[in-house]
Amino acid sequence: MGELALREAWALELCLRRNAKTESVRGWLQYNQLASRLEEYRRKRRFPATPEPAGEKPARPGHRFVLQKHQARHLHYDFRLEIDGVLKSWAVPKGPSLNPADKRLAIETEDHPLDYADFEGVIPEGNYGAGTVMVWDRGSYEVEGEMPATEQYARGELKFQLHGHKLRGGFALVRMRRAAQENAWLLIKHRDAAADRKWKIDRHNDSALTGRSMDEIAAGAPSCRDPAPPSSS
Ligand code: MN
Q1: Which end of the chain is more exposed for a tag (fewer CB within 10 A), N or C?
Q2: What does the alpha-carbon distance between residue 232 and residue 179 come to, in Å, rounded to a whole number?
Q3: Angle, vertex CA 212, rays to CA 207 and CA 216, nearest 5
Q4: Ion ligand 1, residues whose Cβ is below 5 A away
């Protein structure tokens, strides 16, 4: 091997090593960022006293959304959007609406792990959020406009299209700037073909995952779907 070839080979080797190091540092940073972002989620829960996922299994990234009906001390709906490797989460006391005239208060809560999107079941008494959880709706979403979801979220105004079983079409989530609570947002349906002024949430009572009612989930009844749909979406 000539001197030049040798030098080139060595330069390539150095380059590969540097990239490998960068990759592993990046991986480590991502892991740690994710771990710290789920810190609050984990701090509030004791595993395995609760059947909720600990968020340790890596989940395939995508554009999930889920709405979980949660009969805790107060009935509410948890709206979650996959952004940057976690499920950004909002508790919506009255639930979403397809009526553009309904502006639903949505209180931002802690980030949840991606696999939480498949969680349906009962959180036992004595645990954080004890009560029945239903996967009320789920599917994928896409942001509207050029700005990525992370940036729209940071600016406090997210616009997106939902492709769910019950919820479809355009929605906006807007942070309330002058609210007493700093984590208060509004969830609003856009006026589009999917809007429905007569829509009522209490006419939609079955799980999008298993077809079960809240009572059936609480009683541990088997899925109404046979076989159960695949857990990833
Ligand atoms: Mn909840």
Answers
A1: N
A2: 37
A3: 135
A4: 70, 78
